[in-house]
Amino acid sequence: MKIITIWQTYGPYHIARVAALEQVFRDSEVMCFSHCTDSIDYPFFNLHPKKNLVLVRKNASELRFIESLHATLLALWSERPDLVLTCGYERPETLASIIYAKMTGKLVFLMLDNQLNDRPRNAFVELIKRLYLPFFSGFIYGGDTHKDYLRHLGVPGFREVHGYNCVDNESIWQATLVARKTKKPLFSGNDYFICVARLIPKKNLMRLMRAYAMYVEQCGSIMRPWSLVICGDGPERASIEASIQALGLVDLVILAGRVDEFEDMVNYYAFARALVLASHENEQWGLVVNEAMASGLPVVVANQCGCASSLVKDGENGFAFDGTSAELLAAHLLWLHEHADRLEKMGERSREIIKEYSPEHFANNVLSLYRLAVT
């Protein structure tokens, strides 16, 4: 059989999923379709799988719906896959996959991580989704909140599996061990919390600054505060720098900028004490939490992040909190500092939990769904 995956462009974790599919579907050919030539926002997603077809040779901002729909239909008709894995309800590539599947009797699975409350929902659009979703042969969702949304839209449970949102856990863990044994920390001035996020409003970094300032004040003269290292860049950088100045955190908050190299990102995880992700809106998952957990870190994650209910076990591998509350976040940061002797065990628990969110689990769940769909 032939399997085709369709994503905008391919990064390391897309390619890890493809490799896992090749291992699980051993006698099958797996081919990759890219929406466009490159991703402007995420340049590290501009990798090229072995069997890759770029549907429209433009960058992401230049794509047009009809052009993409037509190009995808032609490519699918030429390659004749037995199974298509696509993502994005509204994408022309997804609509083309549905049309192809209905014309040929082949299968199409939708990969998704949408939540009911990740943005305001329009009743008419939700009705269209209810009418549209039955055309898919199956669904691969991220975690608990995404499953709940599928239920809300009337999708029966036997047509779905979890595990869409995954990273290459083993590669990250092995690189973490190497970094801890043989490399110098890229930031070595102090113990530190790490936040990996684009500097944009939905990442809630201004509230994180306030929470961190509260934590520093609560440390007082008894404990030396841990630093906060933020990896990422974006349009809010100037505002965040001003907040750092106003809150008196110049010597404690480090803006590391965008970190594109895998080894450098793992280096930051390897020597951190815990990850913080404070996104308070439209954060459908948060793969940086997977990365940190694969590195063996405790995590503090806002409930509004799609991964929180699936990956965070309160008190076991970290804490989930209301992303609108700086006070709750500050309390969790202080708790982690005061219980530093427990962090290694919490990190081990993170690694146990994240095992079920690996490329191998993703591929095996796709196989299970495929077997159900063809019986």
What key attributes describe this structure?
Rossmann fold; 14 helices; elongated; single chain; alpha/beta; 2 domains; 375 residues; 7-stranded parallel sheet
Word description of this protein:
This protein has 375 residues and is an alpha/beta fold. The protein has 2 domains: 182 residues, Glycogen Phosphorylase B (Rossmann fold, 3-Layer(aba) Sandwich); 186 residues, Glycogen Phosphorylase B (Rossmann fold, 3-Layer(aba) Sandwich), CATH 3.40.50.2000. Helix content is 43%, strand content 16%. It has 14 helices and 13 strands. The strands form 2 sheets. It has a 7-stranded parallel beta sheet. The chain has a 6-stranded parallel beta sheet with strand order 10-9-8-11-12-13, with helices on both faces. Helix 1 crosses helix 14, helix 2 runs parallel beside helix 3 and helix 6 crosses helix 9. The protein is elongated and about 70 Å long. The mean pLDDT is 95.
Care to give the gist of this entry?
The protein has 375 residues and is of the alpha/beta class. Helix content is 43%, strand content 16%. The protein has two domains: 182 residues, 3-Layer(aba) Sandwich (Rossmann fold); 186 residues, Rossmann fold (3-Layer(aba) Sandwich).
How is the topology of this model organized?
Blueprint (H helix, E strand, L loop, with lengths): L1 E6 L4 H13 L4 E6 L17 E3 L10 H15 L3 E5 L4 H13 L2 E6 L10 H10 L5 E4 L2 H9 L7 E3 L6 H14 L9 E5 L8 H15 L7 E5 L5 H10 L6 E5 L4 H9 L3 E4 L9 H8 L4 E4 L5 H4 L6 E4 L4 H13 L4 H12 L4 H16 L1
Parallel strand pairs: 1-2, 1-4, 2-3, 4-5, 5-6, 6-7, 8-9, 8-11, 9-10, 11-12, 12-13
Helix pairs in contact: 1-14, 2-3, 6-9, 7-12, 10-13
